[in-house]
Amino acid sequence: MLAMTISLEKTRAGAHGDLREGLISAGLTLLARDGASGLTLRKCAALAGVSHAAPAHHFDGLPGLLDAIAARGFEMFADVMEARAAAAPQEPRARLEAICLGYFDFARDNPALYDLMFRQIWSLAGSSEELGRSGARAYAVLADTCAPFVQEGQEPGVVETQVWSLIHGYATLVLVGKLGRNRAIASVTDVLGLLGGLALAD
Q1: Where in the chain do CATH 1.10.357.10 domains reside?
Q2: In CATH, which superfamily holds the domain spanning 62-202?
Q3: pLDDT in tens, 67-108
Q4: What predicted TM-score, i.e. pTM, was given to this entire model?
């Protein structure tokens, strides 16, 4: 009887996890296809093949689902930057350029998700712990890659903010059409060159 109970509990837990995952995946699909305006609990449920009431068992309304989708986006974002850094020559500037190009490419290729990610994590209403952890992981990739450029006695946040402001600002300007939506950067070197004084620490 105990074995049957444990098995049943595992099955329910697995089903719960699968449904939550299915709703997040449906949300990502809708976001990419229809944009933020097309993302609703009812549409996610329909695409996931469950009742329209099912999302309420897993998320605190639409804001909860949006937080979960944004958290998944930050995980994907971090994966892209880490992969670019790993594939680049293992030299600080090459790795920094690689993650910045990964940052830009992710934003360009996933504009609605990119917008949602930062809108949710910077929401005045606050974000979920899951979203906070995912966002922190993505930021840590940037911070770790900037670390070799932090001069003695300098606050790490200075270099991190310089690099982040530049690449995030550039990506945002491209996405809103101020620099041409289809304009790609051949090399992040051109963008990072604007930092001028960015140099390896002694």
Answers
A1: 62-202
A2: Tetracycline Repressor, domain 2 (1.10.357.10)
A3: 999 999 999 999 999 999 999 999 998 899 899 999 999 999
A4: 0.83
